[in-house]
Amino acid sequence: MPVSNTSGSLSPKRAILCSRAHAERVADRIFTSRQSACIIRTGDPIQPYRAVAEASSQDEVEVLLCV
Q1: What is the pTM of this model?
Q2: In what order do the strands lie in the sheet with 37-44?
Q3: Are 58 and 35 in contact (CB under 8 A)?
Q4: 9 Rama sector, left if φ>0, alpha if ψ -120 to 50, beta otherwise
Q5: E-assigned strands of 1-67?
Q6: Residues 6 or more apart whose Cβ sits within 8 Å of residue 17
Q7: Distance set, CA 39 to CA 2, 4, 6, 9, 59 (Å)
Q8: Confidence (pLDDT) at 64
Q9: Which of 15, 20, 24, 37 has its CA 20 to 30 A from that of 2?
């Protein structure tokens, strides 16, 4: 799965692990275990997306999966 890395500063593996597609896979695993899951946008170029079971009020929620 190719991931574009316009900055050139991330390793190819880091780019894959930090991608939205990877966050979606992690959120799916959380959701499959019968928990709600969110994908949040962090604003951090090193980790632009993060999958969590519960978002805080300050998080910018990109996707919300509810049980």
Answers
A1: 0.73
A2: 47-52, 37-44, 60-65
A3: no
A4: alpha
A5: 37-44, 47-52, 60-65
A6: none
A7: 21, 20, 22, 24, 9
A8: 87
A9: 37
- The DSSP element (H or E) to which 36 belongs, if any, is none
- Measured CA distances, 48 to 16, 32, 65 (Å): 11, 23, 19
Segments in the chain forming alpha helices (H): 12-17, 20-32
Q: pLDDT by residue (tens digit) across 8-64?
A: 677 899 889 989 999 999 999 999 998 889 999 999 988 899 999 988 888 889 888
Q: What was the pLDDT predicted at 27?
A: 93
Structure-token match 């969110």, residue found: 38
User: Nearest CA to 22 among 50, 42, 2, 56?
Assistant: 50
